[in-house]
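User: What would this chain look like folded?
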Amino acid sequence: VTLCSMAHITMTSSSPPPPLPPSHHLTHLLSSQSFSPQNYINALFKDHHKTERDDVAVIPESMGQRHDGKDLTRSQHNKDAGSTRQSFTNSLLQHHQSTLHNSLSTLSSKIQYLQQSSTDFVTLDELEFSVTRLMEQLTQLVQRCNQIESDRMHQFTNNALQQSLPSSPSVGAVVVPTTPSSSATPLSASSSSGDPYQHLKQWYSIRQKLEHCCKVLHAAQIVSEGIESVQKSIDHTQSLMDDDQALKVITTKLIAVTKALFILEQGGYESYFTHQKELVHRFELRLEDIMRERFIEIMRKRTRWLSRGQSQDMVDTVMDEAKREARMLAQCKLLDRVFKQYVERECKEPIVKVWQNIAQASTQQIKGAKPRGGAPFSDKLSTLYDEILSFLNKDATLFNVVFQDTAFTPISTFITDILTSLSPPLITLMQDQGSLPDMIQCFEQSKQFCSRVQSIMRAHSPIRNDSAKLQKEIDSVESQILLPFQQLQGGYASLEQQYFNSFLDEHLSLYKYHSIDVDTLEEFVSGVQDSMDIFFTTLRGGSERCLRFTSGKEYPALVRVIENEIRRFAAKISGIMSRFESSHLNIDQKNDNRHLIQLMLQFYQVNKNLVIRAIEFTREMQREILEHSDEICDNGMFPITNDKKQELEHFLTEAASDDLSMFKEGIERMRQMYQQSICLAESALILPVRQSLRSMSTLSVWNAKSNPSAYSLPDMHFSPLDYIQRIYQHLVDLPGDLQMLEQDTSIEHDVEIPNWLELVCASTVKFLKENILQIPLLTKDGRRQLISDVAHFSPLLQILVQRPEPSLQELQKLLQCETKSEFDDKRRQCTHLSHDFLRRL
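Assistant: Here's the prediction, encoded as C-alpha cells.
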C-alpha cells in the first residue's frame, strides 16, 4: 500500500503527496483510501508502541513463595517455573522489538527524504532494499519466537506428565529459580491468559504488509525502467522490421511492463499509472504493426520460394523464421490478431470473391421453391467449401510447422474468421435462394465439410497431441460451421409451411379452382382424386425432412404444420362444393340427373377415401415417431433446453396413444367435409323426386268436380299420375346407380357409411308428405286419386328398404275416411305421423 504512493511520487515528482489522514489505528488506516508513506510508518510505530505500553499485565514480584511463607506444592512450583520462562521469552521479544524499531526508524527517514526531494529510481532501489532487510529481521524474529513457543509448550507437556506422578519429590530433580529477573518485561494479558501467539500474529501481519510494499515497489520500478528502455530502443533503431535483437528486447520489456502494470492494478493503484498505460498501449500497437508486416512478408517469401522451386534448405530457413515470429507473437499475445490479419490480407480474398459471385448471381429464384434458371444453392455452397478445403489442404502442413511451439489453433481461427466475415451472411443467402429440401442438402454437405475439417485438424493441428484441447477446438469449429442451420432449425415450422404452400399450390390441380359448374364438375372430382396421392405423399415427406434436418426435434412443429395443411386442403374442397350446391343442385336444374348423380356419388367416394387416408397417415406418423423416440430425445448435433425436452416427452406420450389426437382438428375437418359430400350426394339422388313433386300441389285433379258415373267404378279406375310414375321409375333405377360405389369396408376406420336406399326413400316420403299438404283442396275424386298414387308408391318402398313404410300406411287409412268422425278415430290411432301433419291434413 505504501509503495503505491511512493511510486506515484517517483513517477510524478512535481505532484504534492496526499494529505495526511487523522490518527487511526493501523488496520483502519490500511483500509482507508487516503494515506501517505509517512502516515503509514507513524501508524505502524503507534500500533507497535501501543502493544508494548497498553496491552500488559503485572505479575507479582514473588512468583516462587506463598504469602504465608510455606513451601509451594509441586504443581505450584511448576506453574511458577512456567511463568519464569514466559518472562524470559518476553525479554527476548523486547530485544527484537528494539532492533525492529531501529529498522523502522531508518525506513521512515528514507521515506521522508523521498517525499521532500526530487529522486530517481536509485533511491527507490535503496528503499526497496531497506524494506527487504526489515522483512529479513521480521523473519528471524518469527522463527525465534516459534522456537521459544515450541519449547514452552514442550515444557508444559512435561509438567502435565509430572503432575500425574506421586507427589514425593524425585531424586535429582532440576531446581528452577523462583525469582524472576527484575529487568524482565511482563507479557501481555492476552499472552498469559489468552492467545500465547499474539506477538507472532502481529509480526506476521507486519511482514505481509511489507512484502506487498516490496512487490509494488518492484513493479513500479519495472514499469519506469521498461518504458524508458523501450523508448530508447525505438529511438536508436533505424528499421525495426530488420532488427531482430531490438524487437526481442522491446517484446521482452513490454511483456514485463504489462505484468507489472497488472500487479499495480490489482493493488488498486491503476489511477497512478494512467499515462504509463497509454504509452504501453501505443508501443503495443506499433509493435503489432511491425510484427504483422514481418510475419506476412515471411509467409509471402515462403510462397514465392515454393512456387519457384527453391531448395528445401532455403524453404526450411524461411519456416524457421516464421516459427520464431510465431513464438514472439504468442509471447506478446498478438498471435491471434496478427494471424487473422494475415488471413484477411493474403488468404480470404479469393474465397470472399467466390462468395460475392454466388451472392450476385443473376438467377431468378422463388423463395421456398426449386430454383429456376440456375443451380440449386447446395451446389453454390459446395463451391465455397471446396475453396476453403483447397486452402487448408495446401497450408495445413505449414500451420503445423509454424505454430507447433505455441498453443495457437490456426485452422479453427481461419475457418471461424472466414465464415463470420461472409457478406451477405450465409444464412441470409440461404433463406433467400434455397428451398427447404435444398437447405437440408446444404446441411448434409456442411456435416461432410465438418468431417473433412476434423480430419485435417487431427492430422496437422499444432495441438493434436492434446486430445482434450483438440476436441474442444473441433467442437468449436463444427459449431461455427453449423450455426446457420441451428438458427434455421429455430424457424423450422415456418420453413416447412412455406414449402408445403409453394409445392402443393403448384402441384395440386384442385387448388386452381375457385368455383365450378356442372360442365367442370367431372374434371374437379377427377382432380381431387389425383391430388389425394400427391397430398399425402408430400405430407409424409415432411417426416423424412424433419428427421434429416432436426433429428426429429421439431416433430411437434411439423405436426402443427401438417394439421394446418389438412385443414386447408379440406376447406378448399368444401368451399368449392358449397358454392356448387347453392348454384346447381336445385329443382331448376336442367341437366342430366343421372350423370349428376354418378358424379356426386363419385365425389362422395373420394371424400370417404380421403378420411380413410388421413386416419392411416396419422397412424403411420405415430409409428414412425415412436421408432425414432430415442433419437428425438437425444441432444444430437445441437443441445436442447429442459423446456424443449419436456415438450418432446409430452409429445411422445401423446403419440403413443391410439386416439388419433395427433391430427385431431385436421381429421375432424376431414370428417366434416365427408359429411358434406354425403349431403351433396343425397341432394343429387333426391333431386329427380323434388323436380317431379314441384308442380304436384297445383294439379287440377285434386279439386275436380265429382263424376257421378265414377262412383260406380272401383278405385283401380284411378291410375297413378305422371309425377308418381317418374318418382317410381327413379327409385327403380336407384339400385343400379348405387352399384358404382365401392364395397364399403370403412367401419374399421371409424367412418360412417350411409344406407343410401333408406336415405333416399325417407327423403322421398318426406317431400311427398310436404307436397300433399300444399294441395289447397281435395274433392272426393281427388282424394281417391291421391289414394291411388300413394298405393302405387308404397309397395316399391317396401321392396327397397325391405320393410313397409308405416307413415304411408297411416296416410292411406286417413285418406279413405268418408266422415270427420271416422277421420278423428283413425287420427287417434296414428303413431308415425306428426301432430302438426295430422292437424294440417
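The longest helix spans residues 74-116. If you want, I can go into more detail on any region.
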